Amino acid sequence: MDYMINIKAANTISDYKNIADIADVIWREHYIPIVGKPQIDYMLQKFQSASAIEKQVEDGFEYFTIYFEDTAVGYLSIKQEEKALFLSKIYVLSSHRGKKIGKAAMQFVENKAKTYQKERIRLTVNINNTNAIKAYEKLGFINVGPLVADIGNGFVMDDYQMVKEISS
Asked: Residues in domain N-acetyltransferase (predicted)?
């Protein structure tokens, strides 16, 4: 069955608020068991509030809302680097997983990387997020090692960096 998946640029405060609402649902459901509620409360405020998203957009990040039929069900964020396209965020509501939305979103990201003439896509993923790691590997990403980042307030992001080479 083919569903209508649309990915639209987010560039208004209203778009950012919508993404912040989606992030709140996804992050609390998915990450509290992995890193705990205090870190998620902190990260949502610091990185995924509408004002934080607005600031990231000013700093060169592009945000997109993912729609399934006419419902916003996820979002993604990318940033151009010298030779890579950094996939900062890609999230889909659990109620809409298994509908090829993530795959369509990754194809969108790959097309952006080609449009921007980047050699690779780079992303980071929590080392305990085993399902996401497996999904990225299935899509051709290679785990190039751990990356620990201090995000303030006594919290760290304990991630793997994954890279996928893009054929032009």
From this structure: 5-167
